[in-house]
Amino acid sequence: MSGRAEPSSDGSAASIVQEILSRLPGGCTWLVPVFGPDGHVADFRIAATGDQGHDIYGRGAGRRGARLSELYPSMVGGQLWGLYQRVHATGVAGRMADFQYQEKTSGVVAESLFDVIVHPMLGGLLVLWQRVDEDRRRLEHTERLGRLGWAEYDLLTGVSDWSPGMYSIFERDLALGPMSRAEQSAAIVAEDRGLAETAWQTLDSGALSDVTVRFELSGTVRHLRILSEVARDAAGSPLKVYALVQDVTAREESRTEIERLRDQLLVGEMTALAEHRLAAQLQNMIQPIPVEPVSLPGIEAMVRYLPAESAIQVGGDWYHAQALPDGRVVLAIGDVAGHGLSAASGMAYLRYALVAWLSTDVRDPGILLGHLNRLCVQLKITGTALVAVYDPATRALRWARAGHLLPLFARNGRGGPLGPLDGMLLGADIDAAYPVAETELHTDDLVLLYTDGLVERRPVDTLVLTGQLIDMLAQSSISVDDATLVSLVGQLGEPSRFDDTCVLAARVLA
């Protein structure tokens, strides 16, 4: 036995530490030394731990009482082990940034990166683990998906700090470091240099600057939206400039095309027929409408789009139907509030954003709607949407809605809405959550997703029109064949006078 006593986790100190850590949200643990026969620290035991903190294996409070050598054998004798022993011996706090923990066990992330902070406390060690690899990965994916980057510029030292997204936007090698202010100024298109000067004057006044400036990079012109602000000291002197940069080139080019089409619409000599043709061209540019049913894994789908009679301008109705690499199918429909080119622009943002998030393997309808909702809040638009994911292997249809009309369903002559299921309007609350429902489908089941232009037609009541639509769908489900979808969408009637109509009908295949 050692001549030194091990701190007891059963004493009042351990109880107090455990009481404190149980209230903390992070991964804090209190380690007490285990002494060997020679009186030196041979191991550490977890005497207290936060109830909400979990290690890479998902273990939480159940680790209390266990030794580190038992829980993490690969740690023994390593760099972090040496840090623990050094802090215990010297009583001086220590930190290990970017500590890489490697694991060879199946089912556990092979390499994880942490910042570890160690403080001596009550004869033991208070250890805080902060995982950084997952946060960095999320940041990189966010920057890549949104074409975003952030920068900090120290006004006192002249030193800049760029995120990886900035190097991607400016097509710059990481080894070169951030561009200097002179290099950035030289890259600005001459006509836009006045905008940059105005932005600096805005910052000098203490206001937030938000400008879109054109840069010439690698022989191409990029439109960069720059949101910046100044951090000041207690005396009001400027210290740093923080900037968030987004490459909005695609948006600006689309806006230019939409404005060109709008100018054509304003030409007084155009006939009504030419105006409608132009509106149809714009609609088809954003989302082409197939004229025949589309075959997808386990599903046959057909789309019909009816522009409003009285609106030459394109509305905000949109749809999406796609086979995913894992064999599942996504069906979606939505409607951006309003009409005209602003609604068409919002429609394009949502549809393209949905495709982008699907490409990152996001498959949960509720999570997808959450992303679309936050995008709507940023764009200051509102709208409705419904996203469904069908797995032909299990016949399960998982779906969620954001203020949108419930999907209709029919089987063997009987029909009605799926649900009930709630979901807040897109763009109304950035923290809105979207629950997911699951429905098992059978061969020849019919599912209909549609926008409100189909059932909101004055002076007929919406409930009456919805009932007629359910009856039509139920009748179509009595005898289902390859011609059913074509016949079904052909019965949907004429365009609404005041609102666009989009319909996405699906038939389950054997």
Put the structure in a nutshell.
This protein is an alpha+beta fold and 510 residues long. The chain contains 13 helices and 21 strands. It has a six-stranded antiparallel β-sheet, with helices on one face. It has a five-stranded antiparallel β-sheet with strand order 2-1-5-4-3. A five-stranded antiparallel β-sheet has the order 7-6-10-9-8, sandwiched between helices.
Can you walk me through this structure?
The protein is α+β, with helices and mostly antiparallel strands and 510 residues long. The chain folds into three domains: 12-131, PAS domain (Beta-Lactamase); 135-247, Beta-Lactamase (2-Layer Sandwich); 287-508, Phosphatase 2c, domain 1 (4-Layer Sandwich), CATH 3.60.40. Helices cover 30% and strands 31% of the residues. It has 13 helices and 21 strands. The strands form four sheets. Strands 11-12-21-20-17-18 form a six-stranded antiparallel sheet, covered by helices on one side. Strands 2-1-5-4-3 form a five-stranded antiparallel sheet. A five-stranded antiparallel sheet has the order 7-6-10-9-8, sandwiched between helices. Helix 10 (341-359) packs across helix 11 (365-379). The longest helix has 19 residues, at 341-359. The model is unreliable at 1-10 and 268-276 (pLDDT under 50).
